[in-house]
Write a structure and sequence with these properties.
two-stranded antiparallel sheet; mainly alpha; 5% strand; 273 residues; 74% helix; two-stranded antiparallel ribbon
């Protein structure tokens, strides 16, 4: 099985099936609830695919350049950009579409009536999440700098993934907590599915994860813990970002924050003049 064959079988095919399911639901009158129509779903997913490509490219190139993982050259087209084959960039784009399509499916079938978030309780949720996440990022970064070889992949992953997660939580952690049923229902099945697919690709020899730069814990016998965590944190990023763009309260908050920022800029420019 080639890398493109893996993508066609395990990423493209289920994405198309979920899209077909969405269209059939639409014909039957089932759609995302009004509270999740801040922006069109597939516009949101397209934006996330572009962000994933831009944000992941330098990080993943570094992983390949430093032999954290490598691929079988006989199973790719041979077109390489930097250190990474074309197929890998294609995956960066396709994963948000698959996870987002599943998110839309879950969203259409969950109860639509959810009380609004905000106030002091909402701020407390956001503060506590930022505190925990900030400590985790600091510890992972310090461990990465210390140069412990067996934690290379783990610390690179956490130090890369936590900053955007913290930004998402700072903006709308209370909204994500309010929609935790949707968030959890999207993240966990998508993570398990992608992890099992990845395990098959590793067993097939499509790519190899360095045993010297991982902690040595394996799931499903073949899958390094770090690979499972990669899909877990990237699906959190995709799902959280998409929910925050879809949620109507989040859209109202972004408009309010935008007005406040513009007001501050005008005052600053007026004062500096």
């Amino acid at each position: 099985m080639t890398y493109f064959g893996f993508l066609a079988r395990y990423i493209v095919a289920p994405t198309l099936l979920l899209r077909l399911w969405e269209l059939l639901d639409k014909r039957g009158g089932r759609a995302l609830p009004n509270g999740l129509r801040g922006f069109p779903l597939w516009d949101v997913l397209g934006l996330h695919a572009a962000i994933a490509l831009l944000y992941t490219t330098p990080w993943d190139n570094y992983l390949v350049a430093t032999k954290v993982w490598w691929y079988d050259k006989a199973r790719v087209t041979g077109k390489v950009i930097g250190y990474v084959p074309l197929e890998e960039y294609t995956f960066f784009i396709l994963q948000p579409l698959l996870t987002g399509a599943w998110l839309g499916t879950v969203g259409r079938y969950l109860p639509s009536t959810i009380p609004p978030s905000g106030g002091e309780q909402g701020m407390a949720i956001r503060r506590h999440g930022l505190l925990v996440g900030g400590i985790a990022w600091l510890l992972s970064t310090l461990l990465m700098i210390s140069g412990v070889k067996r934690t290379t992949y783990l610390t690179l992953l956490l130090s890369w993934a936590l900053p955007p997660l913290l930004l998402q939580w700072a903006f709308g952690g209370d909204i994500l907590w309010r929609r935790r049923g949707l968030v959890t229902g999207a993240i966990l099945p998508a993570t398990l599915y992608l992890a099992l697919a990845d395990r098959l690709a590793i067993a097939n020899g499509n790519w190899t994860i360095s045993p010297e730069k991982t902690v040595g814990v394996h799931l499903f016998r073949k899958l390094p813990l770090e690979e499972f965590l990669f899909f877990f944190v990237t699906n959190i990023l995709i799902t959280s970002g998409a929910v925050l763009m879809l949620d109507s309260q989040s859209k109202e908050r972004s408009i309010r924050y935008g007005r406040a920022i513009r007001t501050l800029i005008r005052r600053w420019l007026g004062g500096s003049g």
